């Protein structure tokens, strides 16, 4: 499938309805797109490749417009394989093409593929003439790898933004923001940011500020996943700024594990008490909630509450895994409430507390520990914890 974005500029990406887990982790209920673009000028230029299993479809899209053997430049904003793994295949056809990327991308290309094409290392804000059109390369380190850059088409004011402003969800032929349901895009974009870019949120803010400081016009934003924004390109910029903001939301999110229902009952009771106090609260059972949705809700929650039963003297494995994910994604520090149940040893909450303390987060008191089912006294402790949370959020 090809779609013209502007004169001589084409979308030639592909949809993936096959992969169930992006990066082997994140569910794709609506699929995902691998976006690639073609500029036809005196120099024929590819912006981004696609994932290797979709090479044949991608090649047919290129052939609808030009002879792929005549490609002059292959611009790679980012070396991650969902962007580049079709490179060795296209290199066998476009034998005279030159790869264009940052200095930090060069050794990655060699270690990933080592294709026998020429390369052009571009500096920050360097320009490349294609004939009537000009590309400007904007280094965007850690969006979301260290070699990442954005490519700006000067004359048409198009930003090829790589993973920035991306989204989960296949496009199914409707590639533009004025053709699709933006409610789904908003949900899948935020889930994409939360799952993929949470560790690098400060670099999102810096990258957006850098582009704004250039004072360039932006008529179109064309990311590597998700829709192309032509109706209102600043909509997705504003959303990314909101989702990457260091200001936490005025809400509480309870995440917990449970085996036989006792920790679940505590979680539900705490949610009820918080709602009675006027607190906006969300609840996630980690055995059933998809992890990207949990991260989406917790990454900017004003207060996070974690509950666990004791499992072999440790926190419940799903809870343990979630806390490790918090560390890996560099969650912003915020107050954290703890509760849990145990049958005899009670090591789950103790070890969970040590994990949270190691993250330098404040632990709210009381920490609610229940042996078996909760007594009236322990229910009162839940009420006290709910009141502390409500007071903090005010």
Structure overview:
This protein has 394 residues and is α/β, with parallel strands linked by helices. The chain folds into two domains: 3-243, Ribonuclease Z/Hydroxyacylglutathione hydrolase-like (Metallo-beta-lactamase, Chain A, 4-Layer Sandwich); 252-393, Flavodoxin domain (Rossmann fold). It is built from twelve helices and 22 strands. The chain has helices at 55-63, 81-84, 87-91, 105-112, 182-197, 201-213, 233-243, 262-276, 291-298, 317-328, 347-358, 376-393, and strands at 3-6, 9-11, 14-16, 21-22, 26-27, 32-34, 37-39, 45-47, 73-75, 98-101, 118-121, 127-129, 134-139, 149-153, 158-162, 220-223, 252-256, 281-285, 303-311, 314-315, 336-342, 368-371. A seven-stranded mixed β-sheet has the order 1-2-7-8-9-10-11, with no helix packed on it. Strands 17, 18, 19, 20, 21 and 22 form a six-stranded mixed β-sheet that branches. Strands 12-13-14-15-16 form a five-stranded mixed β-sheet, with no helix packed on it. The radius of gyration is 24 Å and the shape is elongated. The termini are far apart.
């Amino acid at each position: 499938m090809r779609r013209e974005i502007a004169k001589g500029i084409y979308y030639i990406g592909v949809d993936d309805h096959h992969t169930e887990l992006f990066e082997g982790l994140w569910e794709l209920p609506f699929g995902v797109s691998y976006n690639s673009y073609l500029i036809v000028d005196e120099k024929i230029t590819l912006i981004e490749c696609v994932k290797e299993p979709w090479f044949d479809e991608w090649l047919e899209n290129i052939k609808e417009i030009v002879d792929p053997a005549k490609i002059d430049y292959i611009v790679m904003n980012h070396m991650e394989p969902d962007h580049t793994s079709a490179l060795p295949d296209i290199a066998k056809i476009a034998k005279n093409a030159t790869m264009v990327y940052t200095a930090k991308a060069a050794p990655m290309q060699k270690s990933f593929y080592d294709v026998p094409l020429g390369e052009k290392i571009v500096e920050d804000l360097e320009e490349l003439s294609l004939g009537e059109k000009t590309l400007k390369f904007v280094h965007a380190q850690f969006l979301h790898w260290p070699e990442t850059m954005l490519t700006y088409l000067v004359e048409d004011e198009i930003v090829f933004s790589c993973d920035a402003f991306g989204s989960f969800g296949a496009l199914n032929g409707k590639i533009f923001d004025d053709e699709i349901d933006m409610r789904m895009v908003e949900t899948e974009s935020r889930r994409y940011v939360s799952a993929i870019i949470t560790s690098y949120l400060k670099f999102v803010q810096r990258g957006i500020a850098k582009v704004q400081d250039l004072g360039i016009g932006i008529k179109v934003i064309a990311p590597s996943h998700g829709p192309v924004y032509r109706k209102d390109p600043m909509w997705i910029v504003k959303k990314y700024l909101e989702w990457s903001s260091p200001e936490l939301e005025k809400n509480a999110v309870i995440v917990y594990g449970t085996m036989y229902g006792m920790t679940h009952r505590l979680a539900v009771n705490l949610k009820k008490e918080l709602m009675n106090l006027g607190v906006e609260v969300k609840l996630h059972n980690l055995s059933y909630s998809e992890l990207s949705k949990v991260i989406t809700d917790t990454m900017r929650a004003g207060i996070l509450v974690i509950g666990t039963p004791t499992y072999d003297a440790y926190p419940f494995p799903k809870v343990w895994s979630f806390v490790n994910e918090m560390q890996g994604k560099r969650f912003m520090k915020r107050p954290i409430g703890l509760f849990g149940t145990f049958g005899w040893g009670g090591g789950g909450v103790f070890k969970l507390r040590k994990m949270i303390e190691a993250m330098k987060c404040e632990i709210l008191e009381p920490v609610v520990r229940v042996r078996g089912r909760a007594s009236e006294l322990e229910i009162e402790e839940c009420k006290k914890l709910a009141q502390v949370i409500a007071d903090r959020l005010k």
